Amino acid sequence: MEKVIERKGNNLYPSNLKVKFGNYDLDLDVPAGVWNPTPHGIHLGNMLAKIDFTGKHVLELGTGCGLHAIVIAEQGAAKLTLTEIDEPILKNARHNLKKYGCDLPVAYIVADWTNLEGEKYDVLVTNPPFTKSGKIYRRYFIDTLILNAHKLLKPGGELIFIHSSMANIPRSIKMMEENGMEVEIIGETSGPFRKYYFEDAKYMKDIASIPNGYTMIDGKHYERLMVFRATLKTNENC
Ligand SMILES: C[S@@+](CC[C@H](N)C(=O)[O-])C[C@H]1O[C@@H](n2cnc3c(N)ncnc32)[C@H](O)[C@@H]1O
Predict the structure, then answer these.
(1) Which of 78, 94, 119, 192 is the most core-located residue (most Cβ within 10 A)?
(2) Which residue among 12, 71, 113, 161 has the greatest number of ligand 1 atoms within 8 angstroms of its CB, and so is best to mutate?
């Protein structure tokens, strides 16, 4: 497997991921430079394993090692389009899909987040960067995802993504509704903070001002994680 270029930041160390989503036992290679799936990605994978994607063309933004793409393929998708910020990450996703034996048509595209032209999809799935978004405006990827969903989805298409309480759940729900979407929460869980949250003092300060951003239990911080399934009622603002 090709070595993925080193990029700065935590959570990009080499690992092997053994994970079970519903009936799927995955054993994936995650080289240095590819995002190591966190509880966010795991929770999203568990929810995807319950969804019927039969016949759908599914777009996944920021596929990383491809863990969700495999589940979506196995759940019946007709076609996948997977994006990432650079080619070596996509090569790793391709390696993992091949390892798992996915044989549907897959387009691998280097693209900057929602900056994709032309095609409209039945479903858009993603685990958007937030804690480590690298942007001054931390919600950048979430907001652009919601604002640009109408450019990427067919009318009646679905946006499925994982969201932490720290990113401001009421704000995202309101934004989706303002942009013509009907919002459902299909899975909620909670978990302790990751070690790297505490290493970023500005992050800890920012999230302290988010209403119900986290809870403290026995002196420990916990975030809530939920998967949104939002249906685009119309894309008339295209
Ligand atoms: C939170 S990680 C999720 C990765 C994988 N889907 C998972 O759940 O483990 C976000 C992913 O988005 C990718 N990403 C970051 N900035 C991006 C951009 N501007 N355009 C496309 N993808 C980007 C990262 O490389 C990373 O793989």
Answers:
(1) 94
(2) 113
Distance CA 85, CA 106 (A): 17
The DSSP secondary structure of 62-99, one letter per residue, reads: S-TTSHHHHHHHHTT-SEEEEEESSHHHHHHHHHHHHH
* pLDDT tens digits along 152-167: 999 999 999 999 999 9
Distance 62 CA to ligand 1 centre (A): 4
CA distance 97 to 30: 12
Specify the ligand 1 atom closest to the Cα of 62: 12
Closest ligand 1 atom to Cα of 40: 8
pTM tops 0.90, yes or no: yes
CB of 165 within 8 A of CB of 213?
Answer: yes
Distance between CA atoms of 51 and 47, rounded to whole angstroms? 7
Give me the CATH topology for the region 15-232.
Rossmann fold (3.40.50)
